[in-house]
Amino acid sequence: MKRREFLKLFGVGVAVISLSDVFPRIIRGKELVRPPGALAEDALNAVCIRCARCAQICPTGAIVLASLSDGFKELGTPRIDALRGPCERVQGRCERQAKCAEICPTGAILQVDRRILKMGSAIINADRCIAWRGGSCLVCYEVCPVQGAISLIDEARPIFHADICVGCGRCVYACPAQPKALTLTPEGERRLLPV
């Protein structure tokens, strides 16, 4: 075997080993926070035609399309990015009717009663939180549209209640800490099964 052939074969081997770690993550995908009324994951991935209408109509820009790093099956499907804006289904411009569900041509996103809405939960990183580090900040508590989702310890530090939080992302978007002290996760989500 010549040196050039050996190096080529060695390079291919290294690439295969490197990608063997990446491909399963791409194929398996991440757990994503989905728009209100989104079908259960497998059904959403099967029914969504990746038309991007939901992202285009979202008044806050919270709906974005999943990228390849989110997963191969998820690619092009809608997800919530609370760093771009909150979902206003609980309180705001979509309170009466979800614009994303209204425009969805396939039923991948359906109208859901906002009283039973649960897209996920906000999680706090106390090491990054201004209030938990001794500063004066209660922005998350002040902007939360769901009564009881955030309570205060000593009227100074926020505690999040995943069982009450609906995952709208308003607190994540408003958090002034850099990097953000809050993360939106699909923990506790309620998704719809196709009819």
Describe this protein's structure:
This protein is of the alpha+beta class and 195 residues long. It has one domain (29-185). Helix content is 27%, strand content 11%. The chain contains six helices and six strands; from the N terminus they run αααββαβαββαβ. It has helices at residues 3-28, 41-47, 53-57, 99-103, 139-143, 170-174; strands at residues 63-65, 78-80, 121-124, 150-153, 157-160, 182-185. The N and C termini lie far apart (61 Å). The model has no long low-confidence stretch (mean pLDDT 89).
H-E order: HHHEEHEHEEHE
Low-confidence stretches: none
The coarse silhouette is globular
Number of domains: 1
| Number of strand elements | 6
| Alpha plus pi helix count | 6
* Terminal CA distance: 61 Å
Main sheet specs = 2 strands, antiparallel
* SSE class: alpha+beta
The side-by-side strand order for the widest beta sheet comes to 1-2
Keyword list:
195 residues, alpha+beta, two-stranded antiparallel sheet, 6 helices
Layout of helices and strands:
Elements lengths: L2 H26 L12 H7 L5 H5 L5 E3 L12 E3 L18 H5 L17 E4 L14 H5 L6 E4 L3 E4 L9 H5 L7 E4 L10
Antiparallel strand pairs: 1-2, 3-6, 4-5
Could you give a short description of this structure?
The protein has 195 residues and is α+β, with helices and mostly antiparallel strands. It contains six helices and six strands. It is globular.
